[in-house]
Amino acid sequence: MNTRMRRAAVAVAAGAMAISLAACGSAEEAGGDNDSTASAAKGDDIKVGLLLPENQTARYEKFDRPLIEQKIKELTNGKAKIDYNNAKQDANLQAQQVDTMITNKVDVLILDAVDAKAIKNSVQKAVDQGIKVVAYDRLAEGPISGYTSFDNEEVGRTQGEALLKALGDKATKDSKIVMINGSVTDPNAAQFKKGAHSALDGKVTIAKEYDTKEWKPENANSEMEAAISAVGKNNIAGVYSANDGMAGGAITALQAAGLKVPVTGQDAELAAVQRIVAGDQYMSVFKSYPQEANVVAEMAVALAKGEKLDSIAKDKVSSGSAQDIPAALIPVVSLTTANINDTVIKEGFYTVDEICTGKYKDACAKAGLK
After folding, report:
1. Per-residue model confidence as pLDDT tens digits over 204-231
2. Which of 91, 128, 169, 215 is exposed most, by the fewest CB atoms within 10 A?
3. Which phi and psi angles does 299 have, rounded to 5°?
4. Sequence-separated (6 or more) residues with CB below 8 Å from residue 103
5. What is the pTM of this model?
6. How far apart are CA 287 and CA 352, in angstroms?
């Protein structure tokens, strides 16, 4: 793990106790409980399976994997074994990877699902073999024992409110907005969309709206081209994009049409931060991946050792197949030029030198990045 990631993990872990997490969910019984009686007590020599969904979004390999692995090692005095796989956006491949984890007899599985519904049977198979499953970032269906993610509806509201702020006096019911949402196979996408609509509906007109297959930037690019053709390039006031990769695809289409309007994003990817500095993208959503990674590692280690999650998971959530799942929901921050220093730079995600390359140097100086 590089020095910046260690700084980020330490800085966030130190402040994690001060953050108040929002509670939600149901009072019904959980599909996967956190009762320690089902697991024999173990020491530090545990085996943890880690399955991440894709590698197109930079965060998973750059942040999530190394941060989770580092925290698990810290919590187990370096004795834990970690089996890792990335599904590369292939739900069938991820199901096979779960089977491999079962064969390898992991004690606990951290799962970030490609398709939250399709993975349900695989989750059940793992639980039937005595393996606890922790849902990470996306709430998989099935008997999940714990879940950590960001407050996804709040992410959407944050994006929608930022877009309205960027529009200023143009934020009227006559203003036409294009919405580029995430994949329908990702339950988070529906929550982002719901949160965004709660901010935008009634204040602007949603002229075109898309659910983007596999979150792919090239698909967002095609959708934006279609929207420009259908709505008219002089009639689009702004673009809601659910993440940074798709924002990049949409911005490419806008630039090809000679348009510059506010565009939202999410994940604080390096390219997006550079676009924000340059004024091509208005905002992104900054998420403290070190905090999310720390929490899921704590959950996984506790469950593998047969311990309860009471001190870790203060919230409750529900999926389509389970209720009252112990959860920890992490707050988010709207990232604009005004707070780049206080977010991605301060927490060690990127250095000024990484952001302010070549053509971005002048814009960085104007933004006061240091």
Report:
1. 999 999 999 999 999 999 999 999 999 9
2. 169
3. -60, -50
4. none
5. 0.78
6. 19
